[in-house]
Each structure stands twice: as structure tokens, then as C-alpha cells.
Design brief:
The protein is an alpha/beta fold. 27% of the residues lie in helices and 27% in strands. Helix 10 links the parallel strand 16 and strand 17. Helix 3 packs across helix 9.
Length: 342
């Protein structure tokens, strides 16, 4: 089939050897969709901390090289392979994080995009139609691109794995992409939202977005005790743990009886440390959250349109400025960082 483009080539970021310094922006042929596949002109791609880890050391995997990084994109359908029924040319779409996970228990054969699955940091991508979801009607491409990983992770923790009830207390670590999505979703669910951060500026900005309380983790190292004070001694119903390490023990100590910790991030390394007694005596539930399946992403898209939720984007960069964007990601962002293709 003929691809509608002024040139048969496109730009794409590739990593021929592990290490950020080895990234190369190359020209490659625009792919054509096969049976059940869709060709998408990418308009925007958002970055995740996972991308940094994949580029640095493969994140514990031995990736096939060269790899194309990135899992999150929003774009426009420009061509269809035979048998595609769900999308039409001109549709705005976003990628799912996993190829091969539609709903329910995650199949062993499913693959995350951006390694070992195909990467999204390219001007065009080909994906199976079941690896795409219709984009929200009320978001632009840059905003929509942030839903695939960060938005879906927060949604899965708060609305899929354990529904949040009005009056619950939800504690959120930090002010990155997942954290700010979680803050807005929990607020819409009627929860009391407590944000823990090491920055007065970020706590003030979180309050403007709807956080009910902010705790400065450097001035209040025992932030778990502060959570208990804010809740009259009861504790939190749900803590979204994005730091790991020793912070995990404080998350357990902050819980109400029967509360839950959703382990999402590991900024302090690949270990969780803490006493077993708050877990046993508090009858706590600890769950790992590894993004979400396609059906949950579709649910999130409907919620975004209904609630008119606005993803928080810290900065936007051109495709060629990926190395600069990655340095920003390493420093930390308030919300998401997005690459615009056009």
C-alpha cells in the first residue's frame, strides 16, 4: 500500500549500544502496516523515568540492539492494513503501554513498548489495532501522549486495583507524572489528598491543583506521623509509593487499619525496606502496580473526557532535543516532559 507522505523516509531515535551518549537520530524508511496493523503519524511522545533506565542499562534486561526508545505516543492514523475494523484514517489515537494485554490477568507473552516491544520515538510507527486506543476528545496530542504510562498507572492504582471512596485519605509521593495524575484522580473520587515532596514550590503548585495537604519530607522526615496527625490518628487508606527504599517502611507506618500501599516507583533503588510489624499489625495490603491493560486505559480516556482532567506538562521539546529532555528528566520535573514531532 502507498503511505501518504512527502518523503519515504522518517526520523527515528535509535540506541545501538547501552548508554544515553550512544543515542542516534537516524533516517529510516517509513514502515507499512500489515494484517491488522495501523500506521500512525506521531505528533507527540511523552517520556518516563523508565526510559532513562532502559537507555542506561536495559533495566535488568538484555535488549536487542539497536532499540528505539519510548512507550508513550499520540498521533493520527494515516494508513490501515488489511482487516483493521476499529480505526479509520484521520482518527486520533494513543498507544497502550503493553502489546498483548487487553484485560484481566497479564499474559506472559505481553511486551512493554520501548523495549522489548517497539519504541515510539519516531515520526511514524506501526502498531496492531489492539495496541491503540482512541485519544480523549478534549486533549491535544501532547496532553494525550501522557496517558499511556503515567496516567494509566495512577488510574490502575486508584480505580482498578482498589476503588477509592469519598472520604478516604490518599497519600502520594512526589510531584512527577504519575503523582500528579494520581492527585487529580483521587481528588475527583472524593478523597482527601496528601502530597509529600521535598520542594516548597512544588507543594504550593500541587495545592493549586487540588491537593488538600502538603508535607515537606525534609522538614518532616517522619511524614507518616504527620499523616496520622492530619487524620486524627486514623492513618491513610492508600499510599502511592513512588520512592521505594527506606520510604517504604514509612508508607506502611502511615496506613490505617486495612490500608493499602501501591508500589509504583523505585527512585531509591531496587529494594523495599521496613519493619514487618506495621504490615502484620495493620493488616495492610501491598500491591505492585505495573502500568495497566488496554481496557483500563480506555476507561481512563472516558474519565478524562468526563472530568475534563488536564494532564500537567512541565516542558515540551522538539524531537531532535531528546538528549536535553533526558537531562531534564534526570533532574526531576513537575509533571510530564513531552517531545513534539511537529
Amino acid at each position: 500500500m502507498t503511505v501518504p507522505a512527502s518523503s519515504p523516509f522518517m526520523q527515528q531515535w535509535q540506541l545501538p549500544a547501552l548508554g544515553h551518549e550512544n543515542l542516534q537520530l537516524v533516517q529510516v524508511p517509513i514502515p507499512e502496516p500489515g494484517q491488522g496493523q495501523v500506521l500512525v503519524r506521531v505528533h507527540a511522545a511523552s517520556l518516563n523515568y523508565r526510559d532513562l533506565m532502559i537507555l542506561r542499562d536495559g533495566m535488568g534486561m538484555v535488549p536487542a540492539l539497536p532499540l528505539v526508545p519510548g512507550s508513550d505516543m499520540a498521533g493520527e492514523v494515516v494508513a490501515l492494513g488489511p482487516g483493521v475494523a476499529e480505526f479509520a484514517v484521520g482518527d486520533a489515537v494513543i498507544s497502550t503501554f503493553f502489546a498483548g494485554w487487553q484485560d484481566g490477568v497479564q499474559p506472559r507473552t505481553s511486551l512493554p513498548l520501548g523495549s522489548p516491544g517497539p519504541g515510539m520515538l519516531s515520526e511514524y510507527v506501526v502498531l496492531g489495532e489492539d495496541n491503540l486506543v482512541a485519544a480523549p476528545l478534549q486533549l491535544d496530542f501532547a496532553q494525550a501522549s501522557t496517558l499511556t504510562c503515567a496516567g494509566a498507572t495512577a488510574w490502575f492504582a486508584l480505580a482498578e486495583s482498589a476503588p477509592t471512596r469519598p472520604g478516604d485519605t490518599v497519600v502520594i509521593m512526589g510531584t512527577g507524572g504519575v503523582a500528579l495524575f494520581a492527585m487529580q484522580i483521587a481528588h475527583a473520587q472524593g478523597a482527601r489528598v496528601v502530597v509529600v515532596s521535598g520542594s516548597d514550590d512544588k507543594l504550593a503548585r500541587a495545592a493549586q491543583l487540588g491537593a488538600d495537604h502538603g508535607i515537606h519530607r525534609h522538614r518532616t522526615p517522619d511524614w507518616a506521623a504527620e499523616v496520622r496527625a492530619l487524620t486524627g490518628g486514623r492513618g491513610a487508606d492508600h499510599v502511592l509509593e513512588l520512592a521505594g527504599g527506606d520510604n517504604f517502611g514509612r508508607s506502611l507506618s502511615a496506613l490505617a487499619q486495612g490500608g493499602r500501599v501501591s508500589v509504583i516507583g523505585n527512585l531509591q533503588g531496587d529494594e523495599l525496606r521496613g519493619s514487618v510489624y506495621p504490615l502484620l499489625l495493620g493488616r495492610a495490603t501491598v500491591q505492585g502496580i505495573g502500568v495497566a491493560h488496554r481496557r483500563a486505559l480506555q476507561d481512563l480516556v472516558r474519565a478524562v473526557d468526563w472530568l475534563k482532567l488536564q494532564p500537567v506538562i512541565d516542558s515540551e521539546y522538539a524531537l531532535a532535543d531528546l538528549p536535553t529532555a533526558l537531562k531534564h528528566l534526570e533532574r526531576g520535573a513537575f509533571g510530564k516532559l513531552v517531545l513534539r514531532m511537529r
